[in-house]
Design brief:
By secondary structure, the chain is α+β, with helices and mostly antiparallel strands. It has a domain of 108 residues. Helix content is 51%, strand content 15%. Strands 4, 5, 9, 10, 11 and 12 form a six-stranded antiparallel sheet that branches. Strands 3-2-13 form a three-stranded antiparallel sheet. The protein is flat and about 160 Å long.
């Protein structure tokens, strides 16, 4: 199509009441109304939408019924929509609702790199200061005179004091995996809040349904009443133009949306309408309005698009409206804006580059100005045309550059439209939707079902002939047939008509004639089953995927069939995910611009429905660029399901608490969050195991200490008894020895009694010394045993740390 010149000054664009903008809108509207624009595309879409809703036309079967021998008169017999295709579409939509929808905003601009660099410097500085303080405190403790046990306890307290300070290796791991800059956290809160308020999952479902039926998905991201919003567009009303090698609509030259609205909605939506425009609309579209036109040109040019003259109703994506609604055409187009790149010297003497508009006057005499280069960069304009009549009858409103539009310093030549869209299958040929692929087999299913319906109507079963000469004259033929039909009793008189020739050879009933179509009906049922399978295979949805399994099918075979068929449809989900990733990027970027300009306090609802509050200051998000990444991986979903299956064994074996299991089951299909939860579960379990191990060791040590104390008590008791006996003997010997001073050998053993007394004292002292040495030896052994146990505990802890630090093997999925 021929376009209007876009490289003109802003003054020229707004002159003559935005005539330049009106000319652009009229050009795009005329292009979308042209007979050659997308006729086959619209026809394909309408066929698919009608087929999904069982809206079929007998004319659709005209070419299909003639080859089968149908006569013209037989076409009056209505073919019923025995629809099997819509269930395949519903299966894919249901799978989308079950798939994970994980999204996260990442700081990707240079501002984010500076933030990470500053955070790393802060953490490294904190680590260095802590190490210096730790070494100083250790040196101070070692200089104090204290018992070894007390010194060791003080050192352990000091280690715990600085245990929370990360070393350089931990800092790098933290910044790479865990760290979130405060503005990054706010951006994720903004995005999560939008997802809940706008109800993004429901809009994704509707958009995906449009994609399956029309082969296109379209959304519009913009600001309505000062708040960012997102609308899913009906592909039938979307018009766009882009280069053949451009995949996404937002990268094209223009896009628009044609719909119909009541006058009241138009007045509520477009607040910038002038008084004369409102008066014109009321004169044209209210009761008693007069116009030279018959009104038909106010309707859509494509008869089947959204207007049906037969019932005077307008059809839309979410229902049927009144035929008196007004056509509204909104469009956006890629224009050009003159921009200057000024190089100057700032106050600190450094060379800087900044962007200036076309009204900037470069002062060569200013020593701070170095140079300026002028260029044309993209700028998106928008406008709305109300009414489908001529330019004199139509009303134009909101012709302006798109609000909250900024030139990206890193890529000033990229500016996407707010209309986001993608086509699933149009590589080097016309597009075709999933429903359109099923349509031939579905129509053949209708025809076969129609033929089988006639077979069922003509089925008479077995016809039995009756010899009327044997009917009892007391009963009429009607009465005889009544008893035969209602009571299965055939009343006849074997003697009646006996005079007839050959009467003696008559039997009660003659052989019947089989008029049943049962065999043909069975054949048709087999054909219908085959067609049902073909409909599913064309869409990539097998019967097992629909939940239709035979009692003889093995579980493994069913699962394998589901996995293989999901591979076929994975391309559809991939296109849908990429499209919505770009939509969320645009939505978040717009929301950040709005909040950054206005500022304020906002409330957010977390995934567990807890409320949080965050504050955005004016200008806080300047030069901040965030990219939204959506994770929609079926492998993650399978891993998540398998891990959830382990919840019951963990609970039965006391490996996790009930609250932990509930949190695991409530996970929103995020493998990253699930991994963090499992790691926290493992940390709690390790801590519990360590506490249990310490308690067991303390109990064992206490038992050993009690046993050792019992042995020591027994030894002390025996030593005390020996000491008492020995002292008694000495005392007796002394008394005996000094009872008579003349006799110094009272026991007549040849050894003087005083010598024997001294020997007994020496033996007692030696025995007491041996006892003390034995007790000291036992104490030393006990201390050595405690040290061995402590070394074993440290060795076990080291092995656990080494095992945890090793990378975990990647999970493999069955192919």
């Amino acid at each position: 199509m021929k376009t209007i010149k876009q490289r003109v000054s802003y003054a020229s664009k707004v002159s003559k009441d935005f005539q330049w903008g009106k000319d652009n809108i009229s050009s795009f509207s005329a292009y979308s109304n042209s007979a050659g624009y997308g006729t086959s595309r619209l026809d394909m879409m309408l066929r698919s939408y009608r087929l999904y809703n069982n809206d079929i036309n007998a004319a659709d079967f005209e070419d299909d019924l003639n080859p089968l021998g149908f006569e013209i008169g037989q076409r009056k017999d209505k073919i019923m929509p025995y629809n099997k295709a819509h269930n395949k579409i519903n299966v894919l939509i249901g799978e989308l609702l079950k798939r994970p929808f994980n999204y996260k905003a990442i700081f990707t601009s240079i501002e984010g790199a500076y933030a990470i660099k500053d955070e790393k410097m802060r953490l490294v500085k904190e680590y260095v200061i802590s190490q210096i303080q730790k070494e100083g405190e250790l040196a101070y403790l070692e200089g104090q005179e204290m018992a070894p046990e007390e010194l060791q306890a003080k050192q352990q307290e000091l280690e715990q004091k600085y245990a929370g300070v990360m070393n350089p290796e931990q800092i790098d791991d933290y910044l790479a995996k865990t760290y979130n800059e405060p503005r990054e956290i706010k951006s994720n809160k903004i995005l999560a809040n939008l997802v809940k308020k706008i109800n993004i999952p429901d809009k994704k479902k509707d958009s995906f349904k449009h994609g399956l039926l029309s082969d296109e998905e379209h959304c519009w991201v913009g600001v309505v009443n000062g708040k960012p919003t997102l609308k899913v567009l009906n592909p039938i009303g979307v018009v766009f133009e882009k280069a053949p090698d451009v995949k996404y609509v937002q990268d094209g030259s223009f896009a628009g949306y044609r719909t119909v609205m009541p006058l009241a909605d138009i007045l509520d939506t477009y607040k910038n309408l002038k008084a004369k425009d409102i008066k014109k609309l009321e004169e044209l579209y209210t009761s008693g309005a007069t116009s030279s036109s018959n009104g038909e040109h106010y309707q859509f040019p494509h008869l089947e698009l959204q207007y049906n003259r037969a019932d005077n109703r307008s059809h839309g994506a979410y229902g049927i409206g009144s035929g008196d609604d007004i056509e509204v055409f909104h469009c956006e187009w890629r224009s050009q804006r003159k921009l200057g790149f000024l190089t100057y010297i700032d106050e600190e003497g450094e060379v800087q580059t900044d962007m200036v508009d076309e009204n900037f006057i470069f002062d060569k005499e200013d020593p701070k100005n170095v140079s300026i280069e002028w260029d044309w960069v993209p700028e998106i304009w928008e406008g709305t045309k109300i009414g489908a009549g001529t330019d004199l009858e139509a009303v134009y409103v909101d012709i302006q550059p798109v609000p909250y539009q900024e030139v990206d310093v890193e890529d000033p030549y990229y500016q996407p439209l707010r209309y986001h869209g993608v086509t699933y299958n149009n590589m080097n040929t016309s597009q075709i939707s999933t429903m359109e692929r099923m349509r031939p087999f579905q129509f053949l299913f209708f025809i076969v079902m129609h033929r089988m319906k006639h077979l069922l109507a003509r089925d008479r079963g077995k016809v039995m002939p009756v010899d009327v000469s044997k009917i009892d004259p007391r009963y009429t033929i009607e009465e005889t047939l009544f008893y035969l039909d209602e009571m299965d009793v055939f009343i006849h008189n074997s003697l009646s008509g006996a005079e007839s020739p050959g009467a003696a050879h008559r039997s009660g009933l003659d052989n019947g004639i089989d008029r049943s179509n049962a065999q043909h009906i069975v054949n048709y049922i087999n054909i219908l089953n085959y067609l049902d399978e073909q409909i599913g295979e064309v869409a990539g949805v097998t019967r097992a995927r629909e939940g239709q399994t035979s009692p003889y099918d093995a579980v493994t075979n069913t699962q394998q069939s589901i996995m293989q068929s999901s591979t076929i449809t994975e391309l559809l989900f991939s296109v849908h995910t990429c499209h919505w990733e770009k939509v969320l990027n645009s939505l978040l970027d717009l929301a950040i611009r709005v909040d950054n300009e206005n500022g304020g306090l906002y409330s957010s609802i977390e995934s567990d429905f807890t409320k949080s509050v965050y504050n955005v200051k004016k200008g806080e998000m300047d030069n901040c660029k965030f990219n939204v990444f959506v994770v929609d991986n079926p492998k993650d979903n399978e891993v998540f399901r398998q891990i959830q299956g382990l919840a019951q064994p963990l609970l039965q074996n006391d490996k996790a608490r009930f609250s932990q299991i509930i949190k695991l089951l409530k996970q929103s299909y995020s493998i990253e969050e699930l991994t963090k939860d499992i790691e926290s579960f493992e940390a709690v379990i390790d801590k519990q195991n360590e506490q249990r191990y310490q308690q067991e060791q303390q109990m064992m040590q206490k038992q050993q200490q009690d046993a050792q104390n019992a042995i020591m008590m027994k030894m002390n008791h025996e030593a005390s008894l020996n000491k008492d006996n020995n002292e008694t003997k000495i005392r007796v010997a002394e008394i005996t020895a000094f009872m008579g001073q003349q006799d110094l050998d009272a026991d007549n053993n040849g050894v003087p009694d005083p010598l024997e007394i001294e020997r007994l004292k020496h033996e007692i002292a030696t025995s007491e010394q041996d006892r003390v040495l034995e007790q000291h030896k036992m104490n030393v052994e006990s201390q050595e045993n405690d040290k061995d146990r402590q070394l074993k505990r440290e060795e076990m802890r080291s092995k656990e740390k080494i095992a945890k630090s090793k990378p975990k093997p990647k999970s493999t999925s069955k192919k």
